[in-house]
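Record type: monomer structure entry
Structure origin: computed from sequence
Chain ID: A
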Amino acid sequence: MYQWVLWFHIISMVTWFAVLFYLPRLFVYHAENAENKGFIEVVKVMEMKIYRYIGVPGFWATLLSGITLIVIYPTNIFATGGWFHAKLFFVVILIAYFFSLGRLRLKLLNDSCTKSGKFFRIYNEVPTILLLLIVAMVVVKPF
């Protein structure tokens, strides 16, 4: 059963990361085209749908399948070394990032966000860095 849950966890993570990579890119378009009201209305719908219908389910599926993996094989937590704790630390940061995207989406929806396209371009790099760190912890197990 462990392999099936792991498979589901990886698929869920890929789905969630699609949102983590793409939603900030939509925020760039939103911020840089604020004067084009018709375009902004379309982007607002896209932002809502990708966050609510793909991001939130992907987040929950990833989180719950990850917890299930820990429950199925609990000795992994303490027997494997510090890499697992480091991975969980980066995952917590990633979760905070995801919820920050939700907050920024609401600000953009209400036209109260003052962040620039440049800010969102830089902010868009956060999940890439976290993905590299998380996968490195799992594959390399450096400590």
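Annotation 1: The radius of gyration is 17 Å.
Annotation 2: The chain has a mean pLDDT of 94.
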